[in-house]
Amino acid sequence: MMGQAKVDETLLADAAYLPGQVANLTRGASVTAQTNEILERINDMLLREGTDKSEIILVNIWLRDLASFEEMNRAWDAWMPDSGTPRRATFEDRNLPPMCAIRIDVAASRKSEAGQI
C-alpha cells in the first residue's frame, strides 16, 4: 500500500497560484512577444497577490514546439531578478490552443507583513 502525501494547509494559504497563463494580445505572434506578455501579466498578478517574482517557488512552462526553448529562455532570463531563477520545468505540448505558442503556470510564496516569508 502506498503512503499518502501530507499537505500543510498553512503553506497552501501562504502561496499564490497562477495556472494557465497564455497570451491574449500577442496570440499568434513570436514566442518572445507571447512570453513577454505573459510575464508582464504574471508580474502584475503576483503584486496583487501580495508577492513578487523574487518569491516564485515553481514554474511549469509548456511550449507548442520545444525548438523555441532558447527564444523563450532569453525572455525569461531578461525578466528574472539577478537573485536567480526558481525551479522550472519546460515541456512540449502540441495541443495548446490555436495561435498559442506558450503557457506558463506559477506558484509563489506570499510575503508576510514584515516583507519576509
CATH topology: 60s Ribosomal Protein L30, Chain: A
**Biggest sheet features:** 4 strands, mixed
**Secondary-structure element order, N to C:** HEHEHEE
Q: What is the count of helical runs?
A: 3
Tertiary shape: globular
CATH architecture group name:
2-Layer Sandwich
- The assigned structural class equals alpha+beta
Number of domains: 1
Strand content: 25-35%
Rg value: 15 Å
| CATH class annotation | Alpha Beta
Strand order of the largest sheet: 1-4-2-3
Mean pLDDT over all positions: 87
Helix content: 25-40%
Assigned CATH superfamily: RutC-like
In brief, what are we looking at here?
This protein has helices at about 10-15, 30-50, 70-80; strands at about 15-20, 55-65, 85-90, 100-110. It is of the alpha+beta class and about 120 residues long. It has one domain (about 15-110): 60s Ribosomal Protein L30, Chain: A (2-Layer Sandwich).
Write the topology of this structure.
Blueprint: H1 9-13, E1 15-22, H2 31-48, E2 56-63, H3 69-79, E3 87-92, E4 102-109
Parallel strand pairs: 2-3
Antiparallel strand pairs: 1-4, 2-4
Helix pairs in contact: 2-3
Pfam families: Ribonuc_L-PSP (PF01042)
InterPro entries: RutC-like_sf, YjgF/YER057c/UK114, YoaB-like
Protein name: RidA family protein
How would you describe this structure to a colleague?
It is built from three helices and four strands, in the order H-E-H-E-H-E-E. With 117 residues, it is of the alpha+beta class. A four-stranded mixed sheet has the order 1-4-2-3. Helix 2 (31-48) runs parallel beside helix 3.
